[in-house]
Design brief:
The protein is mostly beta strands. Helices cover about 0% and strands about 45% of the residues. A hairpin with a 5-residue loop joins strand 11 and strand 12.
Length: about 230
């Protein structure tokens, strides 16, 4: 008699998986025929220990990881290399890379380390990276790139008046032109507030924001200026 004992080894619905087999021979006087089972192109190795017991086992590759890179905030037009060194690890090589969204300024959607140079009217972009290995396992990671537009085409920092500094309850802003958009970003480059304005004077309640350093962006058509804010 031949008894089969089957144990799954970290099987994942997103990729091919391996199984471990143990075959125990109950009648040693019977001539034994070994069958090697093949699952998804994986060939187990036979390690015979005695005439009474045979083990068939398959080693599981290390877990697949994807690294899209660290969140970053840079002046618009400054090249940023996405991904890491390495961008993928574990699993089974070779890897396939898929970046999204495919926005203007992204050099490639299939390279491990594409370059992003930004472009109007982008402010910040959340890139998602999908890595697929040779066994169809997948891993996902994301990264946020914030683009800063600083003092261009006639605007300077002095044209944007902010008071009081530091602020605690209300932020008063004097703009160089009527209209435009004001944005407040936190230290990680995440957009917290976006306000369309129709006057040269704006008052913003900042009581709900945590104390710390923020970035204020004022955009009027294709002109932008950036200032640092301190809340306390």
């Amino acid at each position: 008699m031949i008894c089969f004992f089957i144990n799954s080894m970290n099987a994942s619905p997103s990729c091919d998986f391996n199984l471990e087999f143990k075959i125990k021979i109950m009648n040693t006087s019977t001539r034994i025929l070994y069958f090697v089972f093949v699952f998804f192109g994986i060939f187990p190795q036979i390690h015979g220990q005695t005439t009474h017991q045979v083990h068939l086992s398959v080693s599981q590759p290390p877990e697949l990881f994807a690294f899209a890179g660290n969140d970053n905030a840079v002046p618009n037009g400054t090249p940023v290399i996405l991904g890491g060194a390495p961008t993928a690890s574990g699993g089974t090589t070779p890897y396939q890379f898929a970046w999204s969204p495919n926005v203007a300024g992204l050099s490639s959607v299939s390279d491990s380390n594409p370059t992003f140079t930004g472009g109007t009217p982008l402010t910040d972009v959340d890139f998602q990276l999908l890595v697929t290995d040779a066994r169809n396992c997948t891993a996902i990671d994301s990264v946020r790139i914030t683009l800063l537009y600083i003092s261009i085409e006639g605007f300077s920092e002095n044209d944007l008046k902010i008071y009081p500094i530091p602020a605690s309850a209300q932020l008063n802003i004097e703009l160089p032109k009527i209209g435009g958009v004001l944005q407040i970003l936190n230290a990680d480059g995440r957009l917290l507030e976006s306000l369309e304005v129709d006057d040269t004077s704006v008052h913003i309640n900042v009581e709900k924001l945590a104390r710390g350093v923020y970035t204020l962006i004022y955009q009027h058509e294709d002109q932008r200026v950036v200032r640092k804010l301190i809340l306390q």
